[in-house]
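quick one, 199 residues, struct below
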Amino acid sequence: MRKFVFIVLAALLSISAGAQTSASSSGGDETQKQSRYDIFAGAAGSSQNQIVHAHGLLVGFEVGVTRNWGKYFGLNVQGASFMTSTSSQNTAGGLSPNYSQFLAGPELHAQIYERVSGNVHVLLGGSHTGGTGITGTPNVAFSTGFGAGLDYRVTQHFSLRLNGDRVGTSFVQTTSGSGNSPHPYSNVQAALGVVYHLQ
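---
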């Protein structure tokens, strides 16, 4: 995972250097002014690998705020709640799972080309699994992960964003009440929404 993150970071910096040189020679673009805060809200979906006998995806929403320092660095805080299953098999089996999380971590972002910019981030936080028919313990777990995203700058204050994360948790979905969490699970998540750039 670390090798993957370092490769992506190096690629973003390399592409950004060329893009910034091009922008400088053309006088720059007003829509690309660096904001102090980026506020994101959008629709999101997640796998549910930690839930035994569950099927399909969980869909819901994701919100987040990034505090930017300069052109390349920021601190990302995000929360998500996935409340609706896409599979009728869950309903037939008496399951109505939900999954929520709160994560934070450092972010590296850069302009890639004209109105397109990218970001990568590392995340730490916690996750909760619950819902009808979900009896595993513990239902709260420490979470770690990493992700990346692309922004398309529509105006000076608004962008469209597509991002994805891979978040690892360590739930035990049994009824024994042992309290142990020896088995890690990873969920792949994606979100599509709007970013408001607060100058």
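The chain has a mean pLDDT of 79.
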